[in-house]
Design goal:
alpha/beta; single chain
């Protein structure tokens, strides 16, 4: 399917609040797209754009950052998941800071959450029309290796979409989208280094996943090279942090969480005219 304007949202755990700042600024300035590809935190925070809930991602992260049942070591020890399933995907979305499922469902924007299939080692791009029915795909997209149990859906096992396609730019190029906006969560020029992680020890039963994970850094760096090439040719618009804010993957410091969100807002405001001119119909 061809789209006019596509938005790609990189993950990055709590660095994803940078993207939340960008998306809230989009909503406040009536910047609309036709389709979103969200990866990991990009999917989990990006869904608020489709549900039109300005400020929700920042609000609940500031409020519950230090809640032991939200995410962190306590949840990992007691549930096997660094993100507490019952708190994050039930209590939070249904009670504490309700997700607007109806608005999400009725919004014409198409939303794809990227997940990694452990059996095949390949990315899957799951179109989620009904967030209430398919919340498990959002959870799978954000389930980081080593600190999350594989998420089983319809007999398949999934983990973090970032392992197989951290920034699905090549995938989007295949859709012939006329306009592409990419929101990254690392500063310009960032590249990943080879990491010697015990994938085989943890995921030996999924050899295809292990091979994909071992090549993760190479694929990521090649994608960044391609994005920067297209950006230099003014073919796409890229938003990325204009400065480095050091954060833990599961950051509890609310000042840092606010800072990365505020940076997303300010960087977006600085590029607002460019973005509007680029995606105008």
């Amino acid at each position: 399917m061809e789209y006019k304007t596509t938005l790609i949202l990189e993950g990055g755990a709590m660095r994803g609040l940078y993207s939340a700042g960008v998306l809230d600024t989009f909503m406040e300035n009536n910047i609309n797209v036709d389709v979103i590809y969200g990866v990991s935190a990009g999917a989990l925070f990006g869904l608020n754009y489709k549900s039109r809930q300005i400020g929700r991602a920042l609000r609940y992260n500031l409020k519950y950052a230090k809640e032991k049942n939200y995410m962190g070591l306590y949840s990992l020890i007691t549930t096997g998941d660094i993100m507490n399933k019952d708190f994050c995907f039930k209590k939070l979305v249904y009670e504490l800071d309700k997700l607007d499922f109806e608005t999400y469902k009725n919004n014409p924007i198409d939303f794809y959450a990227v997940v990694t299939n452990l059996q095949t080692g390949k990315p899957e791009y799951i179109k989620i029309n009904d967030a209430q029915k398919d919340m498990e795909y959002f959870r799978a997209s954000g389930s980081m290796p080593f600190v999350s149990k594989p998420v089983e859906i319809n007999g398949n096992f999934y983990l973090d979409g970032a392992i197989s396609d951290a920034v699905p730019f090549k995938k989007v190029l295949e859709t012939n989208s006329e306009k592409i906006v990419v929101v990254l969560t690392r500063p310009f020029g960032y590249r990943k280094k080879k990491a010697y992680l015990p994938y085989r020890l943890f995921y030996g039963n999924f050899p295809n996943f292990v091979e994909t994970a071992k090549k993760y850094y190479k694929e990521y760096n090649a994608t960044m090279d391609l994005i920067e090439k297209y950006e230099s040719e003014n073919k796409i618009v890229v938003l990325r942090p204009s400065k480095l804010i050091k954060m833990k993957r599961v950051e509890k410091n609310t000042n840092k969480l606010q800072s990365i969100y505020d940076l997303g807002v300010s960087d977006c405001m600085n590029k607002l005219d460019e973005i509007k001119e680029y995606i105008k119909y």
